[in-house]
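Entry 14. Structure prediction run on the chain below.
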Amino acid sequence: MKKLAGLLAFAVALACAILLTKYYSSRPAPAPPPSAPAASQAAPAAGASANAPVTFKTQLVTLDFAAKKAHVTLNLERDPARPAPERVWVWAYFFTPDAPGRYCAGDPVEVRQPFAAGGRASVNVEAPLADCPAPRAPASTYYARVNVSAESAFAARLTEQRISYDTSQAAPAVVEGAQRRQK
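Output returned:
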């Protein structure tokens, strides 16, 4: 009889533990604070959240070897349910399959008030570049990977571990002012 009582106590304790685990793991997230009236959401509030999600699509990338500059045109879109970020940082790095494992990049470029006209924006940025691998042939193809952050310039720059030379995930860059590398 003692064994049966012990087994029953164990089964009840196990069932309670399982139920408590399920309860706490499936608790709904706390309700968001009530939203502000629509009129105050139209303009970005002072101190708007810096980590508001921003999506982007690269439209055109130009790599100008003569001027040692890069030009990037991209479309930005923000989550309309969140306040617009007051600024975003755009960073791009460039690589060519002709120089495996090498890339060049400038500093992230700050864009102020990108969403002043609404939830979507077309942005053009220009960044100085140095130490780009010189093209080996006039037909050398360069690619760009672009990153946008609403947090900081530091967050816009990808770490070395996140640098990728996968051309299927990159935008082809239009090359201007290239001269063939002297051997």
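The longest strand covers residues 54-64.
Filed with the rest of this week's runs.
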